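We read letters as residues; the integers encode the fold. Take this protein.
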Amino acid sequence: MSLESLNGTEYLGAHIKFRVQGFREKNDGIYYKIIAQLTLEEPFKREDFEYTYETCMQLCLILNQQCPDIPQLPGVGVFGFKPTALEAEKRRIELEKWLSAIVWRCDVLGCRQFQQFCNFHKLIDKKWLFQPVSTLKLQGQHSFPIQDFHYEPDTQVCFVLCTDDSLASKMQGFMNFFGKGKQQVHSQLFCYRLDVDVQGEPVIRELWVQQYQNRGTCLVWDEKLTLAGIGFDNGQIICLRVLTGKGYKELSEFCTIQKHTSQITGISFNCLTGHLYSISKDKNLITTDLANPNNILKENEFQFELTCMLQYDWRLYIGDCVGNIYQFGCQSGPLQAMGQIRPDVKMSISSMQFCSNKYFLICGSHEGYYAVYEVGRAGRERQNNLITLNKTVPHDYVQVSISTKELYVNFGKNILVIDSQKMKYLFTLEAHEQNVTKIRIYEDLGLMITGGKDQAVKFWQYKYFPHQIMNNEMLPYRKEPIIEIKPELPKQEKLKPELEDLDHWQ
């Protein structure tokens, strides 16, 4: 494989060589001497360190939580818990193989624990390998994990829904259904306004907060109607009127809708018709006239649970728990069925994103499938083609950046950055202290917003992640020409740099 075919991080990994030179026994165990050498430029840099095999096993476990599908280090029991010299030698060989394999993984190189393990701060410039810091963090007086959020770039207003996800809270909701529950707060809705001070530093202003006894499940905001809708686990929907003319500082309850019998999974407003569309785990799609919210305008019942909803370009897309996507026109009057996209595999759709410049509908699933459909434009609504169907790690949210050609997928408390064409793991962002609950990409701003169970909402400039920077930083170090070699010149195959003999260093 030519080094020129590698991205910047892989090119750096190709110039990091590991050698486990030997081992020696101490009072607290057998230590293995590991040598890491950087061959990117002369004179080569070298770092020596010693670890027990058990410490290396702990590193492997940590990396498994941040980097999926990495090569595994054989367990201690494979060689015996009290190894002889022969067994210790087998461990040395396996450890060297493992280190030499994982250094080719871009996401492993970007992990802070791996960098500390190898003392990379002494070998590699810190501007190449680092964990980004969020440009802005909303935490305020949040009492519960982040359930949902909505950011309006034009007005710099951000709504944040926090929900108690504890088992006690869920049991409380079950008791409330029978009228025996205690009156406690289980959800909070915050409204923030983002601004800058005289020094140009970002300022976060909390405008108001609302508290609810039921567990909130989803949030939607319509700037034209100036309405915020909150769905709850008991099937209730509350609509709030926010006075935008008064700086979003005042609000009132517009209406309460109780048409569903189970958890709300999606809400959408239609500013042209004044309708509200809602879906629930009760398998129903209900259209409500906001002028008369007590009456159901139309109800559609489906075979499977409806899991998510997306409205774009006066079309409504609804996904279910087996992978079906239903399309409706919503520009005028009642919803008009426009067709159905049937999946090639069974998957529970967890998120949907629409890329307007390509007319792509991007779907993620709890099983880990990532599907891209090219939907028909006006007049060809029923012409939908499957462009891509790949499988990543199981996730709740997947977002795609067309400009960087990358996927952003939640993986525990981390976010995986994946090459959307080669499905290669590029970077692991250590985003939150607890599990990530939502991801949203704003392509025009180069902005990614994430929410987590650590009660924080964070803003990231994803186009400046280290793997993006390294693609440019590595260009001066490449040994092979970047442009194509002229046909009349003979091509010489460039071999991977090998670790030079280090015995004379001892």
